[in-house]
Amino acid sequence: MSQRLPSHLEIGGLIRLAQTHGGNAMVLSKGERDAGTLLIVTMCRGKDTQLLERMPQMDGTRPFVMTRVQDSENPMEFSEYLDRRKRQDPDIWILEIDIDDPQKLIALLPQ
Questions:
Q1: In angstroms, rounded to a whole number, what is the distance separating the alpha carbons of residues 65 and 50?
Q2: Which pLDDT score is estimated for 110?
C-alpha cells in the first residue's frame, strides 16, 4: 500500500489549512483523483504570486519548493506557464491560495 495521501484528500486538507489561517483557496485545475501532481499558487491579496511544487530530496522527503515567481512586468507569462503544465500533464492539480502570510502557510505544508 502506498504511503502517499490521495491527491483529492491532500487538496481538501490544504484548502482547510488556508481557511483556518484566514486565507481563501480555489482549485484552478482538477487532476487525477488519487495520484495527480499538485502545484500550489500562493499570493498575498492578489500580489506576489509564486508557484510551489513538490521536489523529491535525497533523504526521501518531498517538500514544496518555490519554482517560479510571477514577473510584475509580464504577469501573463505565469498564467501561460500554468497552461503549458496543464497541457503536458492532464492529471495535474493546481490550487490557488490567497493569504496574508504565504511564507507562514508554506512552513506548515507537509513534506
A1: 10
A2: 74
- Coil, helix or strand for 66? strand
Residue 1 has pLDDT above 50, yes or no: no
Domain that holds residue 94: 7-108
Output the pLDDT for position 62: 87
Residue 52 lies inside a defined structural domain of this protein: yes
User: The C-alpha cell of 7 is what?
Assistant: 491527491
Would you say residue 2 lies in a domain?
A: no
Please give the Cα distance from 1 to 111 (Å, whole number). Answer: 19
Q: What's the total number of domains in the chain?
A: 1
Task: Convert the pLDDT of each residue in 35-46 to its tens digit.
Answer: 889 999 999 999
